[in-house]
Amino acid sequence: MEIQMNAAASVQLGDGLRVTPLGFGGMALTPVYGEVDPAEALRTLHHAVDAGVSFIDTADIYGGGSNEELIAQLLKERRGEVQLATKFGLVGTPSAGYTDIRGDGAYVRQAVDHSLQRLGTDSIDLYYMHRRDLRVPIVETVEAMAGLVQAGKVRHLGLSEVTAEELRVASSIHPIAAVQSEWSIWSRDVERNVVPAAAELGVGFVPYSPLGRGFLTGTVDASTLGSNDFRRNIPRFAADAADANQAVVAAVRAVAAELTVAGRSATPAQVALAWLLAQGRKLGLPVVPIPGTRKADRIDENLGALALDFTAAQLEKLDAAADAVVGSRSADPNWVSEGRE
């Protein structure tokens, strides 16, 4: 099933930044969920842009910088077709582990230059603080980021996994285009404080892991994850929790069985993504999920979410599924906004 996004379709996040209604999360193209074929990864990126998914998200620590270098190969030919987002602040790699968080002004300025060099471009459309460095006032970090806009190295600013109060402080210093945090049918903590603050401030929301790191698609068997798979560190993927969380997958599958896309039965992935889009409309803010994949056909599948509408009963069923979730979304709650709210 090949589906293309309307080439004219776009969503306005905050600060006037317009992006495609679905983005692409680049972390999946590094070996955090298993080995990756670089040639296939590049083909997948090109297919995403061909299909109309041109909002590409990466970070300097994905693959120790190799993810930015991979995306540079795409940008070399198609920079004008891509809205490029990358992130700074984490030191280490997802697979080997993180060793530090840096938010001091000197590091911000150093990190952007390294990312620009790896990406082979002279500007970044959306530059995120990946995680909050609690040793550094957020004012210092955001002021340094604002300096990058003034220097022409960055066009818009974003924040990842911040609290509502951190977002308010940052927005008082410089317009914030987007907050990026985990948000999905089974990760809804951001709806308590961060999402309402973003809606109030006119900031867009970019949910990462909108498919529950693959779990919500019903295709992931937590008991067979490889020894280097990043998900082994996440409590809700532990054996007992993963078994209990099949109840969430069952709810998503049940709704998918009631819907069709392009004449075929909807998939759990499409339902999970469409639910997020519906939540954005309900809660009053632009929402652009960034599912990641290594396979081109998954991009086509994900685009089908844009055609789905739910009945009130179906939304109630999906909303209730969150009550059945067992286990935290992070091994360290302070690592994400939930632990600091």
Describe the secondary structure blueprint for this structure:
Layout: E1 11-12, E2 18-19, E3 23-25, H1 38-50, E4 55-57, H2 66-78, E5 83-88, E6 90-93, E7 97-101, H3 105-119, E8 124-129, H4 138-150, E9 154-160, H5 164-173, E10 178-182, H6 194-201, E11 204-208, H7 239-244, H8 246-256, E12 260-261, E13 264-265, H9 268-283, H10 296-303, H11 312-321
Parallel strand pairs: 3-4, 4-5, 5-8, 8-9, 9-10, 10-11
Antiparallel strand pairs: 1-2, 6-7, 12-13
Explained architecture:
The chain has 341 residues and is an alpha/beta fold. Helices cover 36% and strands 15% of the residues. It is built from eleven helices and 13 strands. It has helices at 38-50, 66-78, 105-119, 138-150, 164-173, 194-201, 239-244, 246-256, 268-283, 296-303, 312-321; strands spanning 11-12, 18-19, 23-25, 55-57, 83-88, 90-93, 97-101, 124-129, 154-160, 178-182, 204-208, 260-261, 264-265. Strands 3-4-5-8-9-10-11 form a seven-stranded parallel beta sheet. A two-stranded antiparallel sheet has the order 1-2. Helix 6 links the parallel strand 10 (178-182) and strand 11. The chain is globular. The mean pLDDT is 92.
Brief summary of the model shown:
The chain is built from eleven helices and 13 strands.
Keywords summarizing the entry:
single chain, 341 residues, alpha/beta, 7-stranded parallel beta sheet, two-stranded antiparallel ribbon, 11 helices
Q: Label the structural class.
A: alpha/beta
Order of adjacent strands in the largest pleated sheet: 3-4-5-8-9-10-11
Average pLDDT, rounded to a whole number, is 92
N-to-C series of helices and strands: EEEHEHEEEHEHEHEHEHHEEHHH
Largest sheet: 7 strands, parallel
Number of strands: 13
Strand percentage = 15-25%
Radius of gyration: 19 Å
Poorly predicted parts = none
Shape: globular
Percentage of residues assigned to helices: 25-40%
Please work out how many helical segments DSSP would assign.
11
Give the CA-CA distance, first to last residue: 42 Å
